[in-house]
Request: fold
Amino acid sequence: MKHEYKLGGTVLLVDNVSVTIGDKPIIENVTMEEHDVIRDGHNQGQMIAVVGRSGRGKSTLFKAITGLRKPTKGRILIPSDEANKPIEVKEGDVGFVDQKYTLFRHLTLYNQLKLAAQKGSTPESEIHGRVMELLSKWGLEKAKDQYPGHCSGGQRQRAAILSQILSSGYFLVLDEPFSGLDVGNVEDVKSMLRLVNASHELSTIIFSTHDIELAVELADKIYVIGFPSEDKQIGTIVSAFDLKTLGLAWQSYGKEHIDLVHDIKKKILAS
Ligand SMILES: Nc1ncnc2c1ncn2[C@@H]1O[C@H](COP(=O)(O)OP(=O)(O)OP(=O)(O)O)[C@@H](O)[C@H]1O
Ligand SMILES: [Mg+2]
Reply:
């Protein structure tokens, strides 16, 4: 059964963005427009996957989307508090979990999250409560007084994701959140992303992965970033697949999903 949905306002506009590092163009003319996905009876967030071969510019694009690298050309707009007045993204607006799950080495998991949750004049007791609740929900309660160096990869990663959720509102960008995880941790991170996604109508998660099956299982939109031709080695969006219009979003994984995986892999290999 195909699920009904509507599209609301724009939650992200990557408007013809190019990034050059030194004198080397890395990505060129990347355009992505994401809308609020609305489904009756659901707090339906957006889940967007970016796939493509190594070196095609996924991490570079993510640094631009999170305001860590200014585009050489084009702009990246997100909604602001004032309705109908999008703003150019700047560092800190969008949560970013990088490929290495960066955490502060000298802070315990509890203190990392407390620091991330501190904004404005939120009272200490409220912050403590929120952090403890999340630690328990995400299975990190026992590890709360450990330093990142003494945590497993999966624990570090969950802490990194949590700290971004706490510090950055409804936008979350994750660069290869599934790499290097065991089967159980992959399932954990999948359910956490779904949880975050359903936590707010505007929740927007963008992730990259080399696991195309996972992308098709989780995302409602998938972009392939690649080189347009052999003599043009600059990353750009070569294909986009909207699982909502294909009737494959929010469905259990079936034969049509497998067919889509094949199609996407073909596009990736050709770019
Ligand atoms: N700071 C930098 N200085 C110079 N070149 C860079 C820099 N960062 C990235 N690049 C180059 O940009 C290209 C794209 O790199 P990027 O890390 O964005 O690729 P990716 O798609 O994320 O790859 P992977 O799948 O391996 O993570 C590569 O050729 C890389 O060498
Ligand atoms: Mg990368």
Observations:
- The chain has a mean pLDDT of 92.
